[in-house]
Amino acid sequence: MRLLTDVYKVDEALTRRAAARIPAGVGKVLSAVEEAAESTKLWCGAAVVMAWKGGRRGRRAAAAGLAALAMAQLVSNGLCKQLAGRPRPPAEWIPHDEVDDRPDSSSFPSGHTAAAFAFTTAVAPTWPVAGALCALPATMVAVERVQSGAHYPSDVAGGAAIGLAGAWATRRTAALFLRRRR
Fold first, then answer.
1. Where is the Phosphatidic acid phosphatase type 2/haloperoxidase domain (predicted)?
2. What is the CATH number of domain 2-181?
3. Is residue 125 within 8 Å of residue 170, measured between CB atoms?
4. Residue 173 in 3-state DSSP?
């Protein structure tokens, strides 16, 4: 119980700090990236570009990224949010109007972060340059979710862990499937 109390205190401090100290201009850039990532548009667009311009490697990277993204979304939004039921950070902690534009669903975990990290992590082994390029917007999405008051840092960490696990599970499943086909 003490651990949960400590996590909540750290969550509060980091949420308040991120919401108050990130400059408005940076916040607008973060919001624009998050808006692009809304409903996985950014990651699907990246997959299209990879498949179109990247040849066989690009198609493999795009397929791995989209499969991992789907798994992470299913786990984070379809399962964990339904079980957790955690309220969003209190509006009074957030000193800007972005707090008015947040969902009503459970705060834990961050589905945006889960999708971003799953896609990026699944793409990277097949096409490291594309993975590195995706890492910046993925990180920006994670920071924005806290800065906007939509999530606590522990929600974002949970989403990132789900994304990493989804990418690992997707790649592992594909490897097992390919091994059995031979």
1. 63-171
2. 1.20.144
3. no
4. helix
- pLDDT, tens digit, 9 for 90 and up, residues 118-170: 999 999 999 999 999 999 999 999 999 999 999 999 999 999 999 999 999 99
Separation CA 6–CA 68 (nearest Å): 32
Number of Cβ within a 10 Å radius of residue 94: 22
* Largest Cα–Cα separation, the chain: 59
Does the predicted TM-score (pTM) go above 0.85? yes
* Triad 104, 13, 5: Cα angle to 5°: 80
Cis bond before residue 153 (omega within 30° of 0): no
Query: Which tens digits make up the pLDDT trace of 23-63?
Result: 888 988 998 999 999 999 999 999 999 999 999 999 999 99
Contact between residue 114 and residue 159 where contact means Cβ atoms under 8 Å apart: yes
